[in-house]
Design a protein that fits this description.
single chain; alpha/beta; Spore Coat Polysaccharide Biosynthesis Protein SpsA, Chain A; THUMP fold; 3 domains; three-stranded mixed β-sheet; 10% strand
Length: 739
């Protein structure tokens, strides 16, 4: 055999489909080709179990192990470098070669001139020919009409039939513009002249690309019906993740390469229009409406917000760049300065109108709704993604946070980005690890309470080390480690500079304080004799009130039932998987996210909304997940649909008509007070003084100070005879003039 000239090299790329591969090779041998040939298997799997099996069953097969998963084109290129045949026959492992197929393909090349690529006739498992066999040139127009919503509109038209070449008797050879990639034969000289497959195409469209390149040189492409193979469609790609994303990316690369960037972008935009796209668009439109409606009267504007507004103003006007943000409930600890920087950017671009801050958080809120859909779809399912987005878009508690220009408002968005980065890193893309570090550093900047999410990352790292997971091993890479360090340092740089000059309260001091809080939770005595502001019962009551405003503000009984169903469904699902010794990354990550965040929340024992935004997406996912699971039981499908409809409808009613707010009086109310002060002062110097609940805090009147400055008559920092005393209580805002 060594001295025999090889006519055809059969190249098969394998990825985790050993059963199909063995069946494919068996079919080749049983077809008993007269044409001299060799069989080359390229193994894209990271494990090399296949090598032993092949040597035992098919010792004549040439086995090549790739260093990593090269994809279809890359794997075939690797096999072609080892091939000795005059012709290369690229074959999917999910195929079965029938008698005479290889000989008939080879003979077609011998008996015809100027042939570039040929493919056999494809049959299904019942030996019936597929309707589509090859295609005409794959243009943006053809793709739009064949793969978009337009195919349904023009279903009776000829454009699809013509492009797919289904008006063919399947008996005589047929000239095509593009051959199917599952089985294709090409001259090895021509293949090498074309420099093989374009490896930018990981999977899909590489056959269209090489078909177009070869036909562009004047060669002809044919389907040869005398050669037949069975194609078990989809078997060779069943173990690949994100197959739809891979397909979409390759389609975009093909269009960009052959038709230009603009046509590629336009085509992709048209192809993205489907029921999911339209549903998401309507959800985003609804989310925008609920957040923007009556924004003057619904935007909260508390004293702490005034602190950030004044800080952003001073940064722009006086060049006073803050290294930390507002003081936390523990005065020696500060939030990060990031929210001040974001506000300053908005003021610099659009002016100092206080509503500009709300427009920023509304945009961030819309992005959060979008990210809920993306994360839910990727971690769970498209239906859960859409359910989650709808519930999140219409949640009263989420809406009020989106209307509030405050440092806690972007927390949910960056929590979602962190969770998505973790998920994609665990799924094997190690570049997302530095991104997860970046989002954690940003979250720490926004609110110290989000530091519990660092524990989620550490637990996942420890688990990966314990189980010797490849996604942890890949982190020991110079580039990844450098990126991670940069990702941490950029958002944290101002805080670190501050710490170097103030004995490290924001870093080392904060870590020690967390340790102290944990010890105190388990009975360690108080160092300073402080008393916790909340006991467990009051914490539970506080938490449920906010959970109700998150899920279904109008009815606490239905909310409680949803809470029980949500956690019950999740833990039953998790238990079933643990019993099978299996796990789902999305579910495992959701459980860890909720449990660690809850632990941090109850350990701190503080009545504060600042601790809540990291929960918003998680609890919404939990509710959507339980709805989806229950809907799969036919008897409950309609009931769940009606429940979701009721929740969404009543929440919209509640948001629009009640002008709901958990944060006291609105911007509109406070602006009216300041307008009265400015009118009454009539240009004279004056002070604004607070009395009553909350006035003990320095920030109590800072919102009024900013509004007075914005209206052109700032309050004085020097004591004046004219004082305006402001008191806020449940009855309203009271203004007293004291001269």
């Amino acid at each position: 055999m060594k001295n025999t000239k090889i006519n055809v090299s059969i190249i098969i790329v394998n990825y985790k489909v050993e059963k199909e591969l063995i069946s494919c090779i068996n079919s080749i041998l049983k077809s008993k080709p007269k044409t001299t040939h060799e069989i080359i298997v390229v193994d894209n799997d990271k494990e090399d179990k296949l090598k032993t099996s092949l040597k035992k069953i098919f010792p004549q097969v040439i086995y090549i192990k790739s260093k990593n998963n090269l994809g279809y084109g890359g794997g075939n290129n690797l096999g072609a470098r080892y091939a000795q045949g005059k012709y290369l026959f690229f074959l999917n492992p999910d195929t079965k070669v029938l008698d005479g197929a290889l000989d008939n393909l080879y003979n077609f090349f011998i008996n015809n001139h100027n042939v570039g690529i040929i493919s056999p006739l494809f049959l299904d498992n019942n030996l019936k020919p597929f309707k589509s066999q090859g295609s005409k040139e794959l243009t943006p127009k053809n793709i739009i009409f064949c793969q978009s919503f337009l195919r349904k509109i023009f279903s009776n038209k000829n454009i699809y039939n013509e492009n797919a070449l289904i008006d063919w008797d399947l008996k005589s050879s047929r000239k095509v513009s593009s051959v199917p990639g599952a089985a294709m034969m090409v001259s090895s000289n021509l293949f090498r002249r074309m420099e093989g497959f374009d490896e930018n195409f990981f999977l899909y469209f590489e056959e269209n690309d090489i078909s177009k390149r070869i036909s562009g040189l004047g060669y002809k492409l044919f389907i040869v019906p005398s050669a037949k193979i069975i194609h078990l469609v989809g078997r060779s790609t069943k173990n690949l993740n994100n197959i739809e994303n891979v397909y979409s990316k390759s389609r975009y690369l093909y269009l960009k390469k052959h038709y230009g960037l603009l046509k590629a972008i336009f085509t992709q935009m048209i192809l993205s229009i489907n029921r999911t796209f339209i549903s998401l668009f309507l959800i985003l439109a609804l989310a925008f409406f609920l957040r923007i409606i009556n924004i003057e009267k619904t935007m909260p504007f508390i004293g702490d917000q005034g602190w950030f507004y004044l800080s952003a103003r001073d940064m722009l006007i006086n060049g006073q760049i803050p290294l930390v943000g507002i003081a936390s409930s523990h005065p020696w600890l500060h939030q990060g300065p990031l929210w001040t920087y974001l506000l300053a950017g908005v003021f610099w671009l659009f002016g100092f109108n206080p509503l500009n801050g709300a427009y920023l958080t509304i945009i961030l809120g819309i992005l959060s709704v979008l990210m809920v859909c993306v994360v839910g779809s990727e971690m769970f399912s498209k239906r859960i993604g859409l359910f989650s987005a709808l519930l999140y878009a219409t949640s009263p508690l989420v809406v009020i946070h989106s209307r509030t220009p405050y440092h806690t408002s972007p927390i949910s968005l960056f929590t979602l980005l962190f969770i998505l980065s973790l998920y994609r890193w665990i799924k094997g893309n190690n570049i997302y690890f530095p991104l997860s570090i970046l989002f954690l550093a940003i979250l720490y900047n926004l609110e110290l309470a989000t530091s519990t999410l660092w524990i989620v990352l550490f637990i996942i790292l420890l688990y990966g080390v314990w189980k010797k997971k490849e996604w942890v091993h890949k982190l020991f890479n110079k580039k990844i480690l450098i990126y991670s360090a940069i990702a941490f340092l950029i958002p944290m740089l101002p805080i670190l500079i501050y710490d170097f000059n103030h004995d490290f309260p924001q870093t080392l001091g904060f870590i020690l304080w967390i340790g102290y809080r944990i010890l105190k939770f388990f009975g360690f005595p108080s160092i300073h004799g402080e008393i916790d502001s909340a006991n467990m019962n009051s914490m539970v009551a506080f938490s449920f009130r906010y959970y109700q405003n998150l899920i279904f503000a109008e009815n606490n009984i239905i909310t409680f039932i949803i809470l029980i169903l949500s956690f019950g469904t999740l833990f039953i699902h998790a238990y079933n998987f643990l019993r099978k010794k299996a796990h789902e990354v999305g579910i495992s990550l959701l459980i860890l996210w909720i449990l660690i965040s809850l632990a941090g929340y109850f350990v701190n024992k503080t009545f504060s909304e600042a601790y809540l935004p990291i929960f918003f997406p998680a609890l919404i996912f939990l509710a959507a997940f339980s709805f989806d699971k229950i809907m799969k039981i036919k008897a409950f499908f309609i009931s769940v649909v009606l429940l979701i409809t009721l929740i969404v409808t009543m929440n919209i009613h509640f948001i629009v008509l009640s002008e709901y707010s958990e944060r006291g009086f609105s911007f509109y109310n406070r602006l009216a007070i300041i307008k009265e002060i400015v009118r009454s002062a009539n240009g004279r110097e004056y002070n604004i003084v607070g009395i009553g609940d909350g006035s003990q805090f320095e920030t109590f009147t800072m919102n009024y100070q900013y509004l007075a400055w914005w209206l052109g008559n700032s309050s004085s920092k020097i004591p004046q005879k004219l004082k305006y005393i402001i008191q806020e209580n449940k009855s309203g805002i009271f203004l007293i003039k004291n001269e």
